[in-house]
Each structure stands twice: as structure tokens, then as C-alpha cells.
Specification:
With 468 residues, the protein is mainly alpha-helical. The protein has a domain of 190 residues. Helices cover 77% and strands 0% of the residues. Helix 13 runs antiparallel to helix 15. The longest helix has 34 residues. The model has no long low-confidence stretch (mean pLDDT 94).
Length: 468
């Protein structure tokens, strides 16, 4: 309720300073709530919510990325001279979107989880439409239409779960209650539920089959919106999937769920590799890169054991790395007035600090030292070998090398090769923004190399409920 009230008030606040203050105040309040939740990890938060350890970690990521996106938006509106009405709507949408994701992270009831996920569609649509041109209008309508279909498919899965529960006289739809009774439920209905939920939420996770509208949305919206869609929204989609996986994990369909996740991840990885070889649009390049990492996370999670830890750690580091890259694209666009690689060149020389962000971000997402994502990808291969998936590990390695090649051809050209047609406006360079983005990259290196005890311990405790 507070989120809705704050969003409505922000919409009617058309002052150029106060509207940004409203967003940052809301995020500061969310940070205060997170600080107080730390003492209640693993405890219920009323009837429909739960202070989940994974949810708490992803809440911290949500706050960090949202604060940086909010700060970058201040520069964005000044440079673009965004009308006050559009700015107010965007900031109201940011508050609503952030609150909806928070609801997904802490929901402990399948109905509440579905409602919060539907709310993220509405919030994201407001953000995608920001530029108010034909491209953004088309992307917004596609996103609303396809994402709503996806949410409807997920709802059908929940209905199947309800049908299975009704047959044994069970009416409590909290995660814990369903998990305790799952072994008594018809496996056919459980399989249908998981398959429909995974299909429906794939639009949030950037996985097959509904990934295309997510790619279009990141391209048509401001880069700072792409930063949130590629990080916190993807995290929310995976958290939602994990809730269903956890609820059914003690039943006979566990191997089947793992196979479905593995197939989904492999198909997504193949498609992302195919698109990355030919895409020339930088925003779409990073969008397909997000699809690649979503695929790797899904594959790692399907292996169980160390794969669970690898998947969650990889999600955390990917959130920071991809957010920094999308935020840097916003600055790059101001300098070159283009998002196409043939119009952007010698970036490391023209904007050294921004070029450093792009270079280190590139090394992060391709899992090259000192990127911490190298550690999690090695853990994923370890999990694959432990399951005797040698041939699959070899195929994944080849696909990852193809993706690295596709990214390297575009990004190294942007960084080091002079493009004759490039039109440069150095007024768009803002070094302080690049400093903030470097902080995110440093966090990727730190988390991967040192694996902070707080993060690893809470992930391991949260994963104790899953079978090895």
C-alpha cells in the first residue's frame, strides 16, 4: 500500500528536483527496511510474506541497482530535456516496479507471488514506454501482450496445482504447506504446473520460449531501464521459479524438473550464441548476453549440489556486471548519438574512464580473470562433470567460446578501432557516472574472488532445503 501511495504522489509531483527526491526517498526507506529485516532472516513476515535469505540478498541488489539507476536518470533527463510529465510517470513507475519486485522476493504464498509478478509487468511497461516514440510504443505493447500471456500461462499452472491440492482436500497455498503435501499430489499435475510456470516466467528470466519481447524491451527503453530489466527483474523471475522447484523437490518429479531446466538452458544458450554472432546494436548485444547468463544459471541449477550455489552466485555477480554495462551504454549514446557498433569507435581513447568500465565489464561477462564469474562457471562445469555430463559440458564450452567471439568482435572494435563515420560530442561524457559503474565492477571481482562469508553462508542456508 505504501508503494502505491508513493507512486501516485510521485506521479503528481512535477517538480524536476522533488520527483527525483521521491524516488531516492523511497529507496532509502527500502534500505531502512532491509537493515531491520537482517535480524529476522528466516522468519515469517505476516501471513503472506517471509524473510527469505535469498530474497534478502536480492533485495540488497535491487536497492543498489535502483539507486544507481535513479542517480543516472537525473543526468539522463537533463541531457535529453525530458518533459516533466514523462519524468514524473517514469519515477512513479520506478517506485511501483521496485515495490512489485520486493513482493516477488518475499512472497510465501503462490497466489501473492503470481500477483506481484503481474505487477512487475505493469511497472516495467511504464518504464519501457519512456521515450514515447514508435519503437518504444511497439516494444511496450509487445511486452504487455506477451508478458501478460506468460503470466496467464503461469496462472494456469497454479490452477493445476490448485486442482491437485483440491483432490486431497488441501487448501493452504503457502510454499511450506504445499511442499509438505507435495508427495501426496498427482505427479502429472505437478509436472504440468512446473512446465507452465517455467514457460510463463521465461519472459522475466530471458529464457526460451518468451525471451524475444524482453530483448526488444531492453533495446527500446532507456539504457538505465535495461540495467534493471537485465538484473533485478531477471533475479525475480529466477526466485519465482525456485519457489516452485523447492516446493516440488521432495517428490518423484525432481529428475524430470532438472531435465526440463537443462533443456531450457541449452536451447536458450544455443539461441543466444546464434544471435550474438550477427547483432550490431549494442543494447541488443548486452540483452542477448543476459540471455546467455540466464542459460548458464539454469543449467547450473539443474545439476543440483554445487550447481545450486554456482547459479545463485552467478546471478548476483551478473546483476552488477550487466547493470554497469547498460548504464555505460547510456553515456556512450550521449557521446556518439548512436547505439550501433559501426558508429562507435576508439572509445577507450575518447572516454578513458568510460572505456575502462566497458573493458572491465566485458572481461566480467566473458568470465575472464579477474572476473569472479569465472569461478562460478568453473563450478557449473564441475557440477556437470559430477553428473557425468561430459559431452554436454563440451558443447556448452564451444557455445560459450562462440559467444565470447561475438562479444569480442563488437566490443574490442568499439574500444580500440577508429570509426570514420563516428560523430563525437564530449559534452555527453560524465566521469562521475563511470566511477559509480566501476564500483559495481569491483564488487563482481570481490564477490567472485573472496566469496564473502555473509553472502555464501546465507545462500548455503537457504539452499539446505533442496536435495543434493
Amino acid at each position: 500500500m505504501i508503494t502505491v501511495v508513493m507512486a501516485v504522489i510521485t506521479y503528481f509531483v512535477r517538480h524536476r528536483v522533488l520527483t527525483h527526491v521521491m524516488v531516492l526517498t523511497y529507496l532509502a526507506g527500502l534500505g531502512f527496511i532491509a537493515f531491520n529485516l537482517y535480524e529476522h532472516l528466516g522468519e515469517p513476515l505476516g501471513e503472506y510474506f517471509y524473510c527469505d535469505r535469498l530474497g534478502f540478498i536480492f533485495l540488497i541488489i535491487l536497492i543498489i541497482v535502483s539507486v544507481l539507476s535513479g542517480i543516472h536518470y537525473i543526468t539522463f533527463v537533463e541531457y535529453r530535456n525530458v518533459p516533466r510529465e514523462a519524468m514524473a510517470l517514469h519515477n512513479a513507475g520506478t517506485i511501483f516496479f521496485t515495490g512489485a519486485i520486493t513482493g516477488v522476493l518475499f512472497a510465501q504464498h503462490f497466489g501473492v507471488l503470481w500477483t506481484a509478478m503481474e505487477a512487475t509487468t505493469l511497472g516495467a511497461s511504464i518504464l519501457i514506454y519512456h521515450n514515447r516514440n514508435q519503437h518504444s510504443l511497439e516494444a511496450t505493447w509487445k511486452y504487455v501482450f506477451i508478458a501478460s500471456i506468460g503470466i496467464a500461462i503461469a496462472f494456469a499452472g497454479i490452477l493445476f496445482l490448485g486442482l491437485a491440492a483440491h483432490k486431497i482436500g488441501h487448501v493452504d497455498f503457502t510454499f511450506a504447506a504445499i511442499k509438505s503435501e507435495a508427495s501426496r499430489l498427482n505427479p502429472v499435475w505437478l509436472k504440468a504446473t512446473f512446465l507452465l510456470v517455467l514457460t510463463g516466467f521465461s519472459v522475466k528470466m530471458s529464457l526460451v520460449p518468451l525471451f524475444t519481447v524482453d530483448i526488444d524491451a531492453k533495446d527500446a527503453s532507456p539504457s538505465l531501464v535495461g540495467a534493471t530489466l537485465s538484473s533485478v527483474l531477471m533475479n525475480a523471475g529466477f526466485i519465482a521459479m525456485i519457489r516452485f522447484y523447492d516446493a516440488f523437490s521432495l517428490t518423484s518429479i525432481l529428475p524430470w524438473m532438472n531435465n526440463v531446466l537443462l533443456i531450457t538452458g541449452m536451447l536458450s544458450l544455443v539461441l543466444s550464441a546464434s544471435y550474438l554472432l550477427k547483432v550490431r546494436n549494442i543494447k541488443r548485444l548486452f540483452a542477448y548476453s543476459s540471455m546467455e547468463h540466464a542459460s548458464l544459471v539454469t543449467i547450473a541449477f539443474s545439476c543440483g549440489g554445487i550447481g545450486y550455489l554456482a547459479a545463485i552466485l552467478h546471478l548476483i555477480m551478473h546483476s552488477f556486471a550487466k547493470a554497469s554495462l547498460f548504464l555505460q551504454v547510456s553515456q556512450m549514446h550521449r557521446i556518439y548519438n548512436s547505439k550501433w557498433d559501426e558508429s562507435i569507435g576508439s572509445y577507450l581513447r575518447i572516454n578513458p574512464l568510460g572505456g575502462l568500465v566497458l573493458l572491465l565489464g566485458f572481461l566480467s561477462i566473458i568470465a575472464m580473470p579477474p572476473s569472479g564469474m569465472l569461478i562460478t562457471e568453473l563450478m557449473m562445469f564441475q557440477a556437470l562433470v559430477a553428473k557425468s555430463y561430459w559431452w554436454l559440458a563440451a558443447v556448452i564450452l564451444v557455445l560459450v567460446l562462440v559467444i565470447i567471439y561475438g562479444l569480442a568482435v563488437r566490443l574490442l572494435g568499439i574500444l580500440f578501432i577508429k570509426k570514420p563515420g563516428a560523430q563525437i560530442n564530449m559534452k555527453g561524457a560524465t566521469p562521475w557516472e563511470s566511477v559509480l559503474q566501476l564500483v559495481l565492477i569491483v564488487m563482481v571481482f570481490y564477490i567472485g574472488l573472496f566469496r564473502p562469508e555473509f553472502i555464501v553462508n546465507n545462500i548455503q542456508k537457504a539452499l539446505e532445503v533442496l536435495p543434493l
